[in-house]
Amino acid sequence: MSEAVRYKGLRGVFAAFAQPGAVTMLFFGLASGLPFLLVGNTLSAWLKEAGVDYGAIGIASYVTFAYNFKFVWAPLVDKFRLPLFGRLGLRRGWLMFALLLLGAGLLGMAAMPPEASLPRFMAVTFVAALAGATIDIVVDAYRVEIAPQEAQGALAATYTLGYRLGLIAGGAGILIVADVFGWQGGYVTICALLAIPIVTVLVAREPEHRVRERLPWRQAVQEGFVRPFQDFLSRYGLALSLGLLLFVALFRLPDQMLGVMAYPFYLDTGFSKTQIAEVSKVYGVIVGIVGALLGGWAVTRFEMRRLLAVSAVGVALSNMLYLIMAMNPGQTWAFVATLSGDNLAQGFAGPVLVAFMSGLVNRSFTATQYALLSALANLPGKLLGGFSGFLVKEAGYPSLFVLSTVSIVPTLVVLAVLWRRMPRPVDSLTE
User: Fold this and answer.
1) 3-class SS at 295?
2) Closest CA to 16 of 120, 114, 200, 159
3) Is the distance from CB of 79 to CB of 94 less than 8 angstroms?
4) In CA terms, which of 261, 269, 322, 329 is 20 to 30 Å from 71?
5) How far is CA 139 from CA 33, 57, 263, in A?
6) pTM of this prediction?
7) Contact 401, 320 (CB under 8 A)
């Protein structure tokens, strides 16, 4: 039975979710999600309590741009084995290195708190951010390489489940622990969770891939930094390549335009930090997990083009739910209803986009090409989201909600243009 047939139908759904790689991706997802808030939103809370001024806190947020530029060093992850971790293989070796580096970064943050020396604290925070971005590179490449595209939805779903559990630990979890043991104790405690993915690396199998080693440096640069982009352009052609990249870049625009101002909006509508943590960081994450599992199931059953259209429209329309909160300030039911629809839509769209991007990459350049796609999926929204505060200041929150919803129109136009030219996943996964 071919891999393409194996994951079709109801039996195929169970086969996709029952594969050993699905469990592996659960724990690798935890490794990816854990550091994201620890060097982002949670970091801002620690800096604020440490008495750091708002200007410095804003500058400190730039450490998260390591995630947006991870494609710069992704070729190294794609083509070069690490000498000290050679026995683990290419993917597991890099992942073990990144996990240990992340642990060192988090422990360094605990050992050198911001009130002692802000420059040193930010230096080790940047190390942690680089490690977290590298984990993303390796895990994404690992997921694409261990299973055919038809099973990527299930792998993306279990990965998303683990990722969101990591977000809970790095968000609500550390806030609870820090209330008891302080920020330094909290980071040490959360760091201990890295033992789970470290053990997983030791027991997981290494994907099959061909790696050319001991090349002259000029050829190595060509193989690692030039050929991945040449390959993408040659397989799809210039016009289709640009169209696919533009579609990926625009897909999450409604979500990211709103995300920057979501937390201030919660506060402005009368909710306390505790209520926000309970509804947004715990309940919302759980709903997102349900959405991710539904999205993973849908990828195994329905055509990708239609799923992309449905999930894109769903994420955009879910932004309109925030008008309910705006019209009912301080009402818990409105908060819960809004977060239910928003997180369900985002959770569903996640595995769909991941499966789509996984189907675009060539397994000879998995890490580099997927890193480029995932970076594009986040960069435009972050850049435009930075101006959302000015829009709220001048026109109010409702204008932001409406504009972010309408911003899906360019995405749908690009999808309509690409509709008949959308590449088949199996064509892009060949070596």
Assistant:
1) helix
2) 159
3) no
4) 261
5) 11, 30, 29
6) 0.69
7) yes
